Amino acid sequence: MPSSTQVQLVRRPRGWPTEEDFRTVSVELGDLAPGQVRVRNEFLSVDPYMRGRMNDGPSYAPPYALGETMTGAAVGRVEESTSDELPVGALVLHGLGWRDVTQADASAFRRVEEIPGGPSSLHLGLFGMPGLTAYAGLTAVAGLREGERVFVSGAAGAVGTAAGQIARLLGARTVIGSAGSAEKVALLTSRYGYDVALNYKEAPIREQLRAAAPEGIDVFFDNVGGDHLEAALDVLNPNGRAAVCGSISAYNDSAPKPGPDNLSRIVTRTLTLRGFLVGQHPDLADEYREAVTRWFAAGELAYDETVVDGVENAVTAFLSMLRGGNTGKMVVRV
């Protein structure tokens, strides 16, 4: 009887999650029913949004159930099939992560192509949800125009590394990014197309951004919130736009923090702040796939991955990602 190693949530975190909030179990899998496939995952994704699903409260995605295996993006290969649609060996993308082997109806999986010159994990990063998030935020949400100045918070993460490069390819005049270490800051300018990179741990980001953007910024792509949002509000030019993608600085707070002290600038500078979810933009998926394939083949996009081995270490990878331990996409290699 085939089995699957799976990670379950057993306790709602209060503040920062700990290893004790999870358990790893072995689950026996039955025989395949007609039209089903069994997939051995190659890579699992751990993402910031998963922290919100560990809370029992209203959000855009339902909370994880206690005592049940969590879900998330994964890419793997079909190793057994009773479906004509997905033969053995097919590479598939799906939402049944946090486990090494999964099986379900073939409709739960989407066949994807091999990426020339790249690993299958790129379907979880640059070619997947983080890349599309960056593209949708810059184009559909912020309406980036050629010649504009852009600031990206959390610029060394999966979305941020994509956003900086895509902004450059779309014609941004200046791209500024923030990160939390000297090594990451160096990568932003040497590898990811950023003109200026700021280490928010060295000095208040509000002071650094004001000095780095004497002519202001037109677009803010926000992954962090908190002091980064406050800093951006200080320097957004009249009619500036903010695409608010995430607020990782607050995901593990046990109590609300005071908001920005300069919200009045939204009125006085006629700014637009718009939150968005990548799931609201399926219409851009084909457009982005064509663009990212072209850019990657031409050598115009770089990527980094932080890879943790073993599904039994998925929680460790997740916790590290929340604390900024990744450069580029954090993935678990199964």
Automatic annotation (TrEMBL):
It comes from the Bacteria. It holds the Pfam family ADH_zinc_N. CDD domains: PGDH. Residues 18-332 form the Enoyl reductase (ER) domain. This is Enoyl reductase (ER) domain-containing protein. InterPro entries: ADH-like_C, ADH_N_2, ER, GroES-like_sf, MDR_fam, NAD(P)-bd_dom_sf. One of its GO terms (molecular function) is oxidoreductase activity, acting on the CH-CH group of donors, NAD or NADP as acceptor. It comes from Microlunatus sagamiharensis. Keywords: Oxidoreductase.
